[in-house]
Specification:
The protein has about 270 residues and is an all-alpha fold. The chain is built from nine helices and no strands.
């Protein structure tokens, strides 16, 4: 069972000494069918056996089938753990889940890294946190930045919901934090925010210090009104299934940058 922060759980295989309870054949047949259907979908997207081609930017209905397959596997795994723990189908389901999560991790990373410009903090602030993948299936997708970012945010949200619900929230957050923290740091760099010690600031001549202060005031306005605000909204959208995960992820992304930004004023 995962910790309380990352909701969802990964069913584990009990020891072979566990007692196998009697179950109704019809229900077991349903679970077997769920695993078989999931296998037919997931193996098409096995990153270890097929050349990688993003499914979420290609066949959108196939992307939905992949997410549904993972949800079905999660239900089947809980069923087998509780009622037929020695079933070979449980082992199959666990293997398929690992394949699927590896694929979703890759998709999540690609969407984040390829949409750095589309998911800039200014445009993100205009979005709603209620968009879902299914909401966008019937849309005519144009080349506009707004629709591209809408789709990216909906995909990220759908993958995050799926991974967190399956007990892989930590892996999802790790990828998200890696990409978005680098964007925050890069933005502050281009805004001219440097890590300056108290002694270095005190040694500056007044003209240089005055220039630094003006630059810092501009960076402060952009960071507070746009950068941090946009990142918070994006976290809330992507991790809408868990307020605690959204808050902790935003803190992981922004804390170091905020310390650097406000550290300048502290060292004056």
């Amino acid at each position: 069972m995962k910790g309380s922060l990352y909701s969802g759980s990964r069913p584990s295989t009990p020891s072979h000494s566990s007692h196998q309870n009697s179950v109704s054949p019809p229900q077991e047949m349903v679970m077997e069918d769920v695993v078989d259907q999931a296998e037919s979908v997931i193996k098409r997207w096995d990153v270890d056996h097929h050349e990688f081609s993003p499914v979420f930017s290609g066949n959108r209905k196939e992307a939905a089938l992949l997410l549904e397959a993972v949800a079905g596997l999660q239900s089947a795994m809980h069923y087998y753990v509780n009622l037929t723990p020695n079933s070979h189908k449980l082992i199959t389901a666990q293997k398929l889940m690992r394949i699927a999560i590896k694929r979703l991790e890759k998709e999540f990373y690609v969407i984040l890294s390829s949409n750095r410009k589309n998911l800039d903090s200014e445009s993100v602030s205009t979005h709603s946190s209620t968009s879902t993948l299914s909401d966008l299936f019937e849309d005519d997708i144009s080349n506009s930045v707004e629709q591209t970012s809408d789709m990216a945010m909906a995909d990220l949200k759908s993958i995050a919901n799926c991974m967190i619900g399956s007990g892989y929230g930590k892996e999802c957050v790790r990828i998200y934090t890696l990409i978005r923290r680098s964007i925050v740091d890069e933005t502050l760099y281009y805004l001219g925010v440097d890590k300056l010690s108290h002694s270095k600031i005190q040694k500056m001549d007044w003209d240089l210090l005055e220039t630094k202060i003006k630059s810092w005031l501009h960076a402060l306005r952009v960071a507070v009104k746009t950068l941090f605000h946009g990142e918070r909204i994006l976290c809330d959208v992507v991790f809408s299934c868990s307020e605690r995960i959204s808050e902790s992820t935003f803190a992981a992304i922004s804390t170091d940058a905020a310390v650097t930004l406000f550290g300048f004023a502290t060292n004056l």
